[in-house]
């Protein structure tokens, strides 16, 4: 080993086979050697834990969503008169339609769940720090795009929650000073939420899903340039710190994927009620406001922020800002130590962040009524303080624990 | 216009904030729980009960309640034969095309037709039924909290005469499980009002139990298939999980052996 070790790539891959069909293709378009370099020989830190499975899981779920979504779209009619009935027909009369739709619905829920875990892993192990800032930013862009896709998708069945959820959001947009009314009108496509709105969100849902695939391409390219971070947050220094992607991480990812698939199947076949909002099986009725308007669980923390602030525009700013602040994270946290394992103050602070996020979800579920309002404000204040006060201060005052000499040394293989 | 929209949205927000305490002041009672065969992650519908329940729906409920998401073909799911489905559909009259004199015609139904609605529209239903259209029953058991238990409690919850001090209103009936204890629907089930082809005595309780089963099936028609396929899929995944775990262990052992 005389060549320098770059994070993920092996020194020099063997010269491509120049004979046969694969050699002929590879000389003209090196997809085979590129695949070998990126997914067979690619060097990964040897100490990755189970949280590093979620990238592969998210990729597979995305493909599953595109596949089922394509077939659902073939049988869906985006008009206010027909949307609900066409979804009912998919569920009841289309052969295997109930299964397609169940996969798409459970997939949407678990996609968001896996995204939150993936995001938490990045926060906990400092994966947003140099040289992975663009990896972090493309990931956040994906989060926002997936949330928009999920929101648009939930509108399509045109049930009571589809309609009134859309109503709450378009009204919230309408609260923006000066241009709010115009924005609301553009979003709704008219005076009321009707055919234009539904058709528009159908197209948006469809096109966003494929744009997500494009950004995933950038995200994956970025991780193959910088290499994966790891639980210790230190860069691999020698080949002993790394292992080739295949067979080490193909076997580990397979195990994680099958475990995830098992949870997926249990929810889909035996406990569908856990993720289902029964109210959405009543057709949209603009004349009849439901007693309890509630978004899907994955939007509840943001709904809690929206409701904790009495001013509508303020609530909208707080909810949007809670995502925007994440984009500034690589520049708010200046500590040279990445992993929270070696940052006692940040570790406690981060646990507090998770608690406040879950609390905000509960606040959303209880419509910030009574004591929940105060709790929601406290949690919201903490959320912002973590990023804007604690992290910038921590890099100066925190006494970090000593880092190990290398990954292999930390595993007792030095 | 924007002012109007803002006012409306504030009204909505105020409504949202008020909704919870108002509801909390009068807690919705939970209907008594029955152990239904179709409950739980492995529950299945009993075909005999489903077929009796359909008799009750067809003879009684369907005179006022639509079930527009279902087609006659869907009844294959409760074990009706293709012939029985064809005959049933054929016995219903649907609006046909205009004839050569532009007069409306009727035609017999086909298995692909959706269940015939008792009223031409919701507005017509509301006008004829005292202001409130009888709700569609396609997903009723799903939308109602504690759907099956509530349906059974409601169908057996009429009391005549009403208990002393109960609210009353002309043209309304007292029911323990109706909102505000008053409902426009007269007691729909009467002992012996239907006869079951399998000879089961048609008591009110039996009819209520069977029609509840049928309505729960209507709101989740693929439950039996889902549970059946699910068992196979989960078993397959457990075997695959064990294999994947063994492979992973074998691979990673190399690293620590080296």
From TrEMBL, chain A:
Membrane spanning stretches: 51-78, 98-122, 134-156, 202-223, 254-274, 313-332, 344-363, 369-391
Record keywords: Transmembrane helix included? yes
The UniProt record gives the binding positions of heme b b562 as 104, 205
Task: List ligand-binding residues for a ubiquinone.
Answer: 224
Q: Which GO terms describe its biological process?
A: respiratory electron transport chain
Q: Which PROSITE patterns match?
A: CYTB_CTER, CYTB_NTER
Domain named Cytochrome b/b6 N-terminal region profile is located at 21-232
Acetylation listed as a keyword = no
Q: What is its main location?
A: membrane
Cofactor list: heme b; heme
Compartment annotation: Membrane
State the UniProt keywords alphabetically: Electron transport, Heme, Iron, Membrane, Metal-binding, Respiratory chain, Transmembrane, Transmembrane helix, Transport
Q: Pfam families from the xrefs?
A: Cytochrom_B_C (PF00032), Cytochrome_B (PF00033)
Per UniProt, what is one GO molecular function of this protein? Answer: metal ion binding
Q: Which residues form the Cytochrome b/b6 C-terminal region profile domain?
A: 235-405
InterPro entries associated with the record:
Cyt_b/b6_C, Cyt_b/b6_C_sf, Cyt_b/b6_N, Cytb/b6-like_sf, Cytochrome_b, Cytochrome_b_N_euk/bac, Di-haem_cyt_TM
State where heme b b566 binds: 118, 219
Per the annotation, how and in what number is the cofactor bound?
A: Binds 2 heme groups non-covalently.
Q: Which domain of life is it from?
A: Bacteria
Q: Which GO terms describe its cellular component?
A: respiratory chain complex III
Record's family?
Belongs to the cytochrome b family.
Self-association or partners: how does it assemble? Answer: The main subunits of complex b-c1 are: cytochrome b, cytochrome c1 and the Rieske protein.
Q: What is this protein called?
A: Cytochrome b
UniProtKB/TrEMBL annotation, chain B:
Q: Indicate the principal place this protein occupies in or around the cell.
A: membrane
The leader peptide range reads: 1-24
Q: Name one GO molecular function term.
A: metal ion binding
Q: Which cofactor does it need?
A: heme c
Q: List all membrane-crossing ranges.
A: 229-247
Pfam families xrefs: Cytochrom_C1
As for subcellular location, the record says:
Membrane
Q: Which SUPFAM superfamilies match?
A: Cytochrome c
Q: Which UniProt keywords apply?
A: Heme, Iron, Membrane, Metal-binding, Signal, Transmembrane, Transmembrane helix
Q: Where is this region: Disordered?
A: 90-120
How, per the record, is the cofactor bound?
Binds 1 heme c group covalently per subunit.
GO CC terms for this protein? membrane
Q: Where does heme c bind?
A: 61, 64-65, 185
Q: What is this protein called?
A: Cytochrome c1
């Amino acid at each position: 080993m005389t060549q320098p070790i770059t994070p993920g790539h092996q020194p020099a891959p063997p010269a491509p086979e120049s004979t046969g069909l694969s050699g002929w293709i590879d000389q003209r378009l090196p997809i085979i050697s590129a695949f070998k370099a990126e997914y067979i020989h690619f060097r990964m830190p040897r100490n990755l834990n189970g949280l590093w499975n979620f990238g592969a899981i998210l990729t597979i779920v995305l493909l599953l969503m595109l596949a089922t979504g394509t077939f659902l779209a073939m049988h869906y009619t985006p008009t206010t008169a027909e949307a609900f009935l066409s979804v009912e027909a998919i569920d009841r009369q289309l052969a295997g339609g109930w299964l397609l739709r169940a996969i798409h619905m459970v997939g949407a829920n678990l996609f968001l769940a896996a995204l939150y875990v993936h995001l938490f892993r990045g926060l906990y192990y400092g994966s947003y720090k140099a040289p992975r800032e663009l990896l972090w930013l493309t990931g956040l862009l994906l989060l926002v795009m997936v949330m928009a896709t999920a929101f648009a998708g939930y509108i399509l069945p045109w049930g009571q929650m589809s309609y009134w959820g859309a109503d709450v959001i378009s009204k919230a947009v309408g609260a923006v000073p000066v241009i709010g009314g115009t924005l609301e009108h553009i979003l709704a496509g008219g005076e009321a939420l009707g055919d234009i709105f539904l058709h528009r969100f159908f197209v948006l849902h469809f096109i966003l899903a494929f744009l997500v695939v494009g950004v995933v391409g950038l995200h994956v390219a970025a991780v193959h340039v910088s290499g994966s971070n790891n639980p210790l947050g230190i860069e691999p220094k020698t080949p002993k710190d790394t292992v080739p992607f295949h067979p080490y991480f193909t076997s580990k990812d397979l195990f994680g994927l099958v475990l995830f698939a098992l949870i997926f199947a249990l929810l889909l076949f035996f406990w569908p009620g856990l993720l289902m909002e029964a109210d959405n099986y009543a057709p949209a009725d603009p004349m009849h406001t439901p007693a309890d308007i509630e978004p899907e669980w994955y939007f509840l923390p943001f709904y809690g922020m929206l409701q904790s602030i009495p001013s509508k525009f303020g609530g909208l700013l707080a909810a949007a800002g809670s995502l925007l602040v994440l984009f500034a994270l690589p520049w708010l946290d200046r500590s040279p130590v990445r992993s929270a394992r070696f940052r006692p103050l940040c570790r406690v602070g981060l646990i507090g962040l998770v608690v406040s996020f879950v609390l905000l979800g509960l606040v959303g579920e209880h419509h910030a009524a009574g004591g929940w309002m105060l709790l929601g404000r406290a949690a919201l204040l903490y959320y912002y303080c973590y990023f804007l006060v604690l992290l910038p201060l921590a890099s100066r005052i925190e006494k970090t624990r000593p880092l190990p000499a290398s990954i292999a040394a930390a595993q007792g293989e030095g | 216009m924007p002012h109007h929209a803002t006012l409306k949205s504030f009204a909505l927000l105020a409504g949202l904030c008020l909704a919870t305490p108002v509801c909390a002041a009068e807690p919705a009672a939970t209907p008594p729980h029955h152990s239904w065969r179709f409950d739980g992650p492995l529950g299945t519908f009993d075909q005999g009960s489903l077929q009796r329940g359909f008799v009750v729906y067809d003879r009684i409920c369907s005179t006022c309640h639509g079930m527009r998401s279902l087609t006659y073909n869907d009844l294959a799911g409760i074990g009706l034969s293709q012939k029985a489905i064809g005959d049933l559909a054929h016995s219903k009259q649907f609006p046909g095309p205009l004839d050569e004199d532009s007069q409306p015609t009727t035609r017999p139904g086909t298995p692909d037709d959706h269940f015939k609605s008792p009223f031409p529209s919701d507005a017509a239903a509301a006008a004829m039924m005292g202001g409130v259209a009888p709700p569609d029953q396609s997903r009723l058991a799903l939308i109602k909290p504690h759907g099956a238990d509530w349906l059974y409690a409601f169908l057996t919850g009429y009391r005549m005469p009403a208990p002393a001090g109960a609210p009353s209103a002309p043209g309304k009936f007292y029911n323990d499980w109706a909102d505000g204890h008053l409902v426009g629907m007269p007691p729909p089930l009467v002992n012996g009002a239907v006869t079951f082809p399998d000879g089961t005595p048609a008591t009110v309780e039996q009819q209520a139990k069977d029609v509840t089963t049928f309505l729960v099936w209507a709101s989740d028609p693929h439950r039996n298939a889902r549970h059946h396929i699910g068992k196979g899929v989960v078993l397959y995944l457990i075997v695959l999980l064990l294999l994947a775990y063994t492979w992973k262990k074998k691979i990673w052992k190399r690293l620590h052996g080296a």
